Fold this protein.
Amino acid sequence: MQFHKLDQIDIQILQIIQKRARIKRKDLAELVHLTIPAVSERMRKMQEEGYIKKYTTVLDPKKVNLGVTAFIFIKVDTSSHYSDVITQALKYPEILECHAITGAGSHLLKVRTINVDGLEKLLSIIQSWDGVINTKTNLVLSSPKESTELSLDHLSIEEKEQV
Amino acid sequence: MYRDNKLDDIDLTILEILQKHGRTRRNEIAEIVGLSLPAVSERVLKLEDQGYIKSFHAHLDNHKVGLGVTALIFITTESSTYYPDILERANANENIQECHTITGIGSHILKVRAEDMKALEKILNQVQAWPGVKDTTTNIVLSTIKETTILPVRHLKKKVEQV
């Protein structure tokens, strides 16, 4: 199947469902001035082609008692241990993110735990991973912004420039 | 019936299902947890009302929508009097997905998505021009091993059992 380029209406749909995934098809169709089947077809296509990764429900971490958020930098002694780090990071649900990064340290983790005791426990587990020589932890005091929304403005600009 | 603010096993299962697949149909959930459709709808509503569920989102693929560069920017500010300014600017910039105040070196960490290095440079220039920003350190993400919003919830069950 040929990948289609996103047009203005696709972008508009993506912008809306990034904010409100459970918007009714009828309302969405009205907003973008299309029929319901046309909107459904576009959404199906964008999911098939991988623009939409998935639909999720975001919980309030404090309400589910995960009061501590931290960023942990890991320094791994050689890249031969990277696969161990990956296996371990995928195993722990408290580790929400794991990125390989440039700069001091090789990996950055974003973790959420019940309390500081939980963080200490998780840290000692991470420090025992093969190849981890050192960790640096930044505790999150507050999160004024925390979103999964991606800016799509650059796509609209591209289209305008082409016209 | 269950009391307000106490989650039982079925609530936790519902939260787990919805975190993984935000658009799971109510009748599918009802089947999995062995409840009637109205009972499930009632529970989901309650979980929303009580703030456990924050929102429903479509997650887009950042590479597919042309945001190939992810970076974590540490900011050091001159004094905390500038925090409201930083918050305001972080909120206004759609390329900034997250802004946390943290302990350790630096006062804030930003998670940024940009189209390319040129776009990242532009964002960095903007951040460096924010009032009170003394210094920034940028870690560019080489690859992302794990990136999820799914929070573990089973520890809540343990707590209930302990009571």
Observations:
- Chain A touches chain B through 68 residues (CB under 8 Å).
- Residues 68-139 of chain A form a domain with the Alpha-Beta Plaits fold (CATH 3.30.70.920).
- The longest strand of chain A covers residues 132-146.
